[in-house]
Amino acid sequence: MATVTHDQALANARHLLAGQPAAALAQAARLWGTDVDAWELLVRHDVVRALPRAVPPLEPARRADVGGGMFVCGDHRETPSIQGALASGVRAAQDVAAAVGAR
Ligand SMILES: Cc1cc2nc3c(=O)[nH]c(=O)nc-3n(C[C@H](O)[C@H](O)[C@H](O)COP(=O)(O)OP(=O)(O)OC[C@H]3O[C@@H](n4cnc5c(N)ncnc54)[C@H](O)[C@@H]3O)c2cc1C
């Protein structure tokens, strides 16, 4: 299977959206459930490298306890999402509680 790099994916997305404000407006119409015929695309922001890379193999549920009394949490220990950050945080809290003998 061919691997698509981050830069290639971004270039593809740019290519798909380039000069196509209609695509953005169609998405806005779907999201907001409203008529966007009178809307105009004013600006577009590309957030480059906004998220951590999630390249295979996916390693979810990485340990919070990295040794030496240090505990790490965040989306980079799980999946690059709020859900991943929260799940990682819960695991880190549980590991800390276990390490200090709390219930
Ligand atoms: C534009 C954008 C849109 C997104 N949309 C979605 C979405 O729709 N759904 C979704 O699930 N996820 C989305 N995400 C991803 C989601 O926001 C992140 O996965 C999540 O916030 C990661 O949480 P975190 O606590 O691991 O890290 P962060 O939220 O990045 O928190 C890390 C914190 O550590 C601080 N920090 C960094 N270095 C230091 C230092 N040396 N000392 C002290 N503090 C430091 C930073 O200032 C920051 O406050 C989006 C992200 C972006 C950027």
Note down, in words, how this protein is organized:
With 103 residues, the chain is mainly α. It folds into 2 domains: 1-50, no CATH class; 53-103, no CATH class. The chain is 41% helix and 5% strand. It has 3 helices and 2 strands; from the N terminus they run ααββα. It has a two-stranded antiparallel ribbon with strand order 1-2. The termini are far apart. Bound molecules: flavin-adenine dinucleotide. The site of flavin-adenine dinucleotide (FAD) has 10 residues, from helix 3.
Looking at this protein, list some descriptive labels.
103 residues; mainly alpha; two-stranded antiparallel ribbon; 3 helices; 41% helix; binds flavin-adenine dinucleotide
Order of the strands making up the biggest sheet? 1-2
Q: So what's the oligomer here?
A: single chain
The proportion of residues in beta strands is under 5%
Strand/helix succession: HHEEH
End-to-end span in angstroms? 47 Å
The overall number of domains is 2
Structural class: mainly alpha
The counted number of beta strands is 2
Q: Give the biggest beta sheet.
A: 2 strands, antiparallel
> What bound compounds does this protein have?
flavin-adenine dinucleotide
Rg calc: 20 Å
Mean pLDDT: 83
